[in-house]
């Protein structure tokens, strides 16, 4: 099977923060891959902007190094890299200053899509929006891409939304959450809504519970002081885990279109019950030999910020009444693995002697590693010796099912940037969604602060604190193993 790449319209993409970590690791190598695939047309151009003084040649050299360091096999395509670098320019601009804007205005062309990627600290979003307008660089057709964190609570998110709304219509604002750009996340929607098989079972009659795990092996070393102001709840749950929860739990949208999908996601967030403090566990990783503890990494010996959180939540609607959703995420865990598991109920009655209530169907959606979906089903163990049952996965791993085409699975960032150019907001968060998510998370965080809640220690390389295991054991359930 050969994948079909549909070229997007020619564009001028300005990357504010074009010299930063995100631009170098993800955005620019990703754009090169889209160029190589033919999706980014040769008429398109990319303009880096940041305060550092640099000319076009210096920026091109920086991007060539970034492709060399962070690109995949495509970094050997030397001729294509040279062509791609030719599409790049650089303008020195301080978001808070007046220099450079006229030059940027002079670089922008009419008749192509204009997009502005705000890959800078959120405190600069307002300055950028204001100056893009003052210098008539942005027009009513332009798009802006904004990075997380989108606020640190409801109040700051509202303020940020209001600032951007002063210059851009909601249809022009693309709040990026790269989890939504993952192939498997979109495949989750295809599996749910493209098959007759699953939707009839997707409710409290057949689903026992749902688990969402996003586990990392890295700690916060390097960015500890920054992370300490945020914690796992703000950094992961409010955005990535809640977005996954929405996609798994939402009602079928009438069409696969931006506002239809986002309306359904918003309804899920609004139906989330406040979380009881007994149903939430926070943790901090302990020191392990030479490997520092969370508090050492955060350079804050009295820190109460969590590097791990696990919780049980409920969605108050007809479909999900009584079905617990267990979420957990943490750093320094036993493996780097992200997964959503839909665990179906036991058979009401087993006709096989000795096998009562042993088998459960589980639909596991793996985001990393080995993106793919598998359905655990029960079959007869092959061979003689009577009717013995075993559980086997029906594996829908892309590389096996799709062969060569899976090699072209696009990285989340580059897919989402192409969606921006196409003007497709389906996989981006709308302002009201972000605010609703903060409205749900704020009271949880405020509760911790009021109670001076102390996170539990957990061993590096483990599955989190014992209390997190108890959270499920108490309910007669257990977490799935975190496998890398
Ligand atoms: P970074 O490495 O610190 O880069 C910041 C960039 O902004 C640099 O290019 C810097 O260049 C530029 N900059 C700083 N102040 C500026 C100003 N006043 N005017 C114009 N440009 C300015 O940060 P990053 O890691 O790339 O992150 C960028 C944004 O993405 C942040 O909001 C971050 O939270 C978000 N994000 C990052 C990641 C990631 O993996 N890195 C992941 C998710 C979200 P100069 O110093 O030359 O101006």
From TrEMBL:
InterPro entries membership? G6P_DH, G6P_DH_AS, G6P_DH_C, G6P_DH_NAD-bd, NAD(P)-bd_dom_sf
What organism is the protein native to? Answer: Marivivens niveibacter
* Pfam families the UniProt entry points to: G6PD_C, G6PD_N
Q: Where is the active site?
A: 240
For the Glucose-6-phosphate dehydrogenase C-terminal domain, which residue ranges apply? 189-480
Q: Where does NADP(+) bind?
A: 17-24, 51, 148
Q: Where in this chain does the record put each Glucose-6-phosphate dehydrogenase NAD-binding domain?
A: 14-187
- Pathway assigned in UniProt: Carbohydrate degradation; pentose phosphate pathway; D-ribulose 5-phosphate from D-glucose 6-phosphate (oxidative stage): step 1/3
- Per UniProt, substrate binds at 178, 182, 216, 235, 331
* SUPFAM superfamilies associated with the record: Glyceraldehyde-3-phosphate dehydrogenase-like, C-terminal domain, NAD(P)-binding Rossmann-fold domains
A single GO molecular function term of this UniProt record: glucose-6-phosphate dehydrogenase activity
The entry assigns this protein to a family as follows:
Belongs to the glucose-6-phosphate dehydrogenase family.
Q: Does the keyword Oxidoreductase apply?
A: yes
Does this UniProt record's set of keywords contain NADP? Answer: yes
The record's Gene Ontology cellular component field reads: cytosol
Protein's name in the database = Glucose-6-phosphate 1-dehydrogenase
Q: Which GO terms of type biological process are on file?
A: glucose metabolic process; pentose-phosphate shunt, oxidative branch
* Record field: transmembrane: none
Keyword line: Carbohydrate metabolism, Glucose metabolism, NADP, Oxidoreductase
State its role. Answer: Catalyzes the oxidation of glucose 6-phosphate to 6-phosphogluconolactone.
Give the Gene3D superfamilies listed for this entry: Dihydrodipicolinate Reductase, domain 2, NAD(P)-binding Rossmann-like Domain
* Catalytic activity entry: D-glucose 6-phosphate + NADP(+) = 6-phospho-D-glucono-1,5-lactone + NADPH + H(+)
Catalytic activity, EC: 1.1.1.49
Which EC class heads this enzyme's classification? oxidoreductase
């Amino acid at each position: 099977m050969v994948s079909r790449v549909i070229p997007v319209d020619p564009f001028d993409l300005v990357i504010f923060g074009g010299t930063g970590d995100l631009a170098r690791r993800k955005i620019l190598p990703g754009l090169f891959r889209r160029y190589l695939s033919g999706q980014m047309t040769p008429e398109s151009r990319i303009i880096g902007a940041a305060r550092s003084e640099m000319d076009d040649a210096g920026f091109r050299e920086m991007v060539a190094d970034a492709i060399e360091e962070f690109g995949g096999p495509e970094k050997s395509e030397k001729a294509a890299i040279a062509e791609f670098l030719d599409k790049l320019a650089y303008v020195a601009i301080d978001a808070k200053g007046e220099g450079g804007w006229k030059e940027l205005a002079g670089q922008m062309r009419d008749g192509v899509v204009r997009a502005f990627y705000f890959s800078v600290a959120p405190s600069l979003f307002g300055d950028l929006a204001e100056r893009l307008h003052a210098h008539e660089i942005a027009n009513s057709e332009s798009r802006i891409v904004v990075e997380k964190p989108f606020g640190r609570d409801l109040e700051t998110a509202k303020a940020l939304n209001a600032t951007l709304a002063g210059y851009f219509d909601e249809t022009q604002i693309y709040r990026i959450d790269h989890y939504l750009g993952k192939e498997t996340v979109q495949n989750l929607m295809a599996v749910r809504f493209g098959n007759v098989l699953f939707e009839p079972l997707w409710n409290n009659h057949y689903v026992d519970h749902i688990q969402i795990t996003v586990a990392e092996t890295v700690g916060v070393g390097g960015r500890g002081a920054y992370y300490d102001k945020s914690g796992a709840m703000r950094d992961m749950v409010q955005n990535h885990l809640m977005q996954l929860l929405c996609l798994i739990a939402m009602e079928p949208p009438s069409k696969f279109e931006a506002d239809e999908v986002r309306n359904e996601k918003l309804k899920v967030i609004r139906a989330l019950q406040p979380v009881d403090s007994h149903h939430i566990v926070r943790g901090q990783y302990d020191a392990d030999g030479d490997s520092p503890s969370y508090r050492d990494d955060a350079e804050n010996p009295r820190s109460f910020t969590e590097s791990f959180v696990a919780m049980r939540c409920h969605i108050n609607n007809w479909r999900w009444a009584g079905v617990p959703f267990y979420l957990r995420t943490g750093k320094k865990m036993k493996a780097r693995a992200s997964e959503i598991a839909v665990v179906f109920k036991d058979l009401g009655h087993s006709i096989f002697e000795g096998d009562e209530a042993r088998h459960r169907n589980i639909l596991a959606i793996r985001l990393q590693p080995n993106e793919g979906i598998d359905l655990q089903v029960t079959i007869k163990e092959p061979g003689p010796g009577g009717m013995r049952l075993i559980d086997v996965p029906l594996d829908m791993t892309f590389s096996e099912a799709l062969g060569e085409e899976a090699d072209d699975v696009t990285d989340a960032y580059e897919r989402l940037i192409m969606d921006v150019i196409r003007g497709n907001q389906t996989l981006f968060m709308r302002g009201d969604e972000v605010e609703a998510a903060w409205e749900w998370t704020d009271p949880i965080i405020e509760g911790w602060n009021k109670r001076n809640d102390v996170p539990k220690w957990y061993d590096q390389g483990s599955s989190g604190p014992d209390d997190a295991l108890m959270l499920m054991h108490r309910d007669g359930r257990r977490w799935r193993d975190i496998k890398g």
